[in-house]
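Think of the structure tokens as a kind of shorthand, similar to the way a musician reads notation: each symbol stands for something richer, in this case the local conformation of the backbone. In the example below we present two proteins back to back. Begin with the first one, reading the sequence and then the tokens, and try to describe in your own words what changes along the chain.
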Amino acid sequence: MAKSSRDVESPLHSAAVPALPAQDGLQRRLSSRQLTMIALGSAIGVGLFLGSSVTIELAGPAVIVTYLLGALMAIVMAYAIAEMAVVHPVAGSFGIYAETYLSPWAGFTVRATYGLVQIIAIGAEVTAVAIYCGFWFPQVPGWIWVMLVSAGLVAINALQVGNFGEFEYWFALIKVVAIVLFIAVGLLLITGLGPWPAVGLANLTQHGGFLPHGWRGVWLALTLVITSYMGVEVIAVTAGEAENPSTCIPKAMRKIVYRLIIFYLMAITVMLAMTPWDRIGSASITSSPFVRAFETIGIPFAAGIMNLVVITAALSSANTNLYLSTRMLFSLSRGKYAPQWLGRLSTKGVPHRALAVSSAGMIAAILLAVFAHKNAFLLLYGTAVAGMFYVWGVILITHLRFRGAISPATLSALPLKLPLHPWPTLIALLALFGIALSTFWVSGMEYTVPTFLPLLAVMSVIYGVYRSKSRVGVVPH
């Protein structure tokens, strides 16, 4: 029989560690391999396969350096959140950590922001599927694809979490294998070991040089590249349904971080070596640069196969994002910051009512696909960026307080620790702040931070309403 989140406690729990609220009902059925693939499924998606079109335009071949810088920040984030998730393996994860170590307001706003960002991301991913399908069926309206994909994703997420995890494992595995094959084919083209003449590395230094837009372009591209790594925090969200958190979480976190770095750096480097950057980079998003790279080279059927892969990647990401937003709404409800009916579970242990609300992102995507299809992707994706900056910032600040609160015994027992504390966390915080400010100089992202501030104000008002009602014992049903 599957254990609930109340039944399994981390061996690192002690009297010196603050107690977190129990969240009954969720079933611990996700294995380490499923956790790893769920995280990869969230991270490897639109940011790499579609958004890289804009980052290449901003930085040229030097976007490789940008992805390396993003990787360093991702490592800090991954280790910081893994430490907390091992000690506190609960649904709601970093939202509950922020509530415990910072303030109830921080806990509420980071959970609400993350849930909203994931809902927006769902819309971005399914809109991307419509863009990809236009490669084969340019006459078919994009909203038709959006509706078909949305219905399928809701059905998958309604499954028991173990079945969902297994489905997402194979879903994500397809794009992982595809990236490996893409890198392998690219290396054959670069070295000339295959049936085609060697391309070499000349494309990395020609067409304006390695730094066609200078170091300014490298830094500005980081505003979008960093979002490609925003997915490592998924491990913490799944902690409430992990089979053995103290071993599964560190193992999965190590795998996800280093696989992401290898996949991103190798895939981007190979793609830029295969094709001149000024042919695949574009400020307007109409197709994947990976597909355009194969189109440029002229390998028969390769572009079509790659297009099928990027469709699978977008579906996998949207599938995981729907899972994440559903769990965050569930956590808010159990924390009495949202209507209690959102925290109810189906007979399969799925927060089905929270799932229905999370599907609102798909409805928004359908409307955008019908009325503003040309700008739909950037509108959705850009809106989510500032929210994720806030989420990562709160997680890093929470980690500083977490380290100060736990006992030396608990710290020494951690199976995975961020070295040189607190410097990596502080440097990552400073870099994140600088990246957020830099969005004002990136076309299409100028308003991402300003639009988030009133959104944060609205969430604060909602928090105040629920806080005041909970104090008098009245919580909306």
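Once you have a description of the first chain, move to the second and do the same.
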Amino acid sequence: MRAPDSWVVVGLDCGGTSDNATVLDASGRFLLDRLVESPSLVQEGPDVAVKALVRALDHVLELTGTARSLVRALGLDTPGPASADGVISSKGATNFSQPAWRGFDFRGALESQVGLPVVYNNDANAAALYAHHVHFGADAARHSSVSAIVGTGLGGGVIEAGRIVRGVAGMAGELGHVHIPMHGLLAEGQPLPRCNCGFAGDAESVASLAGIARNLLPYWLTRFQGHPLAGVEPVEAAARQVRAYGERGDPLALKIFEQQAMALGRLFTIAANFTDPAAYFLGGGVVEATPSFREWFLAEVRDHTALREEQARVATFALVPDLDMAGARGAAIAALETCRIA
């Protein structure tokens, strides 16, 4: 840990179970090199969750020996769906299921509580921004990138000239709900995958934990009779074990991950023709896998991304670094950029 030598911003990543916090000084130097977690308490409602974030703020300032008076702004990220201004969807969200969360102005409530400007992004956008800045460093403002974050769902982020593309309603970069071609991806007799959002054949319906549980695993269990995962209930619990089987080279698991890699490659192919980014980043559970497995998976995604020769010569494929810290750090970077512009 390092003491600040200037004004700072604080990044706060509010998740379904934990708040993660970090401190970034005006020069772009993080004062912490590890994860600082505390309970998010989001299941207890908005008022309790906002107070928990304030405690997370005070705790990380205490750890770094930083006075509250040195904090110029906060960066906040949460899972979506939420507006560009940090208002939780009127239908609620998986991590914010209580009725009190519907339409709740999370950013505004935190800003009112601490008396400091709060810059909001969804968690996938924040992770995408961090990956972009780590990869390009001082040249971040000269480049563009697209990130796909594979988790329970499929999050994403589009960075142009070093800044997050948010969209008018804050819904830009929702890569999971982009429809992708299914011909050649699905096996014989495999049903068209359906997403929890109501779409059929979008990227998330294949490349996500929910996609494994709802669509991929039930099909492949019919092709691998007697597989140990057939006896695991509920199917969501079985789906969480697929990665461990894949790391051991299990044929069923590899079929699932091959389809996921193909889906992500087709998604990146769409991005290549839509934004022509300099880099493609992949994050999520696969980043936490064994090195050999994650490198294999990234190579599969790259092989299924159809780039023109001119693009292939200059495009980079990489993993999102420091995934457990990426959200808080990306939120802090967004806050720092806002302060510099102001």
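Compare your description with these statements about the second chain. Strands lie at 8-14, 18-25, 36-39, 71-78, 118-122, 145-150, 154-160, 163-164, 279-284, 316-319.
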